[in-house]
Amino acid sequence: MIIGVPKEIKNNENRVAVTPSGVVEFTKRGHEVYIQTTAGDGSGFTDDQYTEAGAKILPTIAEVYDIAEMIIKVKEPIEPEYKLCKKDQLIFTYFHFASHEPLTKAMIDSGAVCLAYETVESSDRSLPLLIPMSEVAGRMSVQEGAKYLEKPLKGRGILLGGVPGVRPAKVMILGGGVVGTNAAKMAAGMGADVTILDLNLQRLRYLDDVMPANVNTFMSSEYNIRELIATHDLIIGAVLIPGAKAPNLITKDMLKDMQPGTVLVDVAVDQGGCIETCKPTTHQDPTYIIEDVVHYCVANMPGAVPYTSTLALTNATLPYALQLANKGWKQACNDSNELKLGLNVISGEIVYKGVSEAFDMPYTPVEKFL
């Protein structure tokens, strides 16, 4: 198979979808790999390293899309890429369709086969291609939140871990999944007073067992959220419904109950956000303020730590990409239910219910194409 790896062009996105090590794995199985020049620079991988691994370097993104049977990316195609996607071309990347109708329509119009990292699902309901970036984003949410609590950045002027004689910051985490767990670990390690909320009592029992003493668990409900927001300094949204839009757990009217300088970090922004006043921001312009509350809603948080993120992501994606290259997407998805669940759009039709429901658009069972 001919595999194309374009340079990411989303704002401050420095990750790359395939490392030189991955190129070796593809080429030794007889596949051809084309990398856009400088695609790996942001993650510390040079064109020479890719060439030595067996890849061919192309000068433009258009040439990569034009030659490839399978495009492997990190982030969803953005508007300049829409016209480059071809009929029957397999695109393997994060899409997060349910939060972005123009992207969904563009991929329908392209006729491409869109296989989304975020909906590849294992038999235990875990999301193996989302987990590594959720781990990074969860840890970064506390790192960034601690920074924006500083007064020059319009926060409350609180040191996350406090000092002897002065209480630490209070951190509230909505969701006890991978993002929430990693956020709680970081916040607790920095000495904050942490409360983590979830709807799943079994999950809360587990977290209560494994977390340190400065992490408290709480059942998630609108009443409890409203009670807690008035006293917490950093609030992290870490809620995910696979392939669907995240629910709004923090509503606009709640902002007036927060202390001025409270910081909101919405890690769920890729899926529409679990904070009603959330809108995607970039690393270049990461925050905005509503009702004296600082909103940090960067849609590609792991892009700020590309070396770590690229290695973590490609460790997870490469085995699936090899299956797709070796067998073709139809056979690979017939053989692997995990990959089958990753199919979102095929030849102009939506084949993932969460996406069709998000926009009230027609749904076609994926079996039609397999």
What can be said about this structure in brief?
With 370 residues, the protein is α/β, with parallel strands linked by helices. 34% of the residues lie in helices and 16% in strands.
Describe this structure in words.
The chain is an alpha/beta fold. The protein has two domains: 184 residues, NAD(P)-binding Rossmann-like Domain (Rossmann fold, 3-Layer(aba) Sandwich); 171 residues, Rossmann fold (3-Layer(aba) Sandwich), CATH 3.40.50.720. Helix 8 links the parallel strand 8 and strand 9. The protein contains 13 helices and 15 strands. The model has no long low-confidence stretch (mean pLDDT 96). 34% of the residues lie in helices and 16% in strands. Helix 1 packs parallel to helix 2, helix 6 crosses helix 7 and helix 10 packs across helix 11.
Q: Provide the CATH superfamily of the largest domain.
A: NAD(P)-binding Rossmann-like Domain
Number of structurally distinct domains: 2
For this structure, the CATH topology of the largest domain is Rossmann fold
Q: What's the Cα radius of gyration?
A: 21 Å
Distance between the termini: 19 Å
* Fraction in beta strands: 15-25%
Number of helices: 13
Strand tally is 15
Mean pLDDT over all positions: 96
Helix content percent band: 25-40%
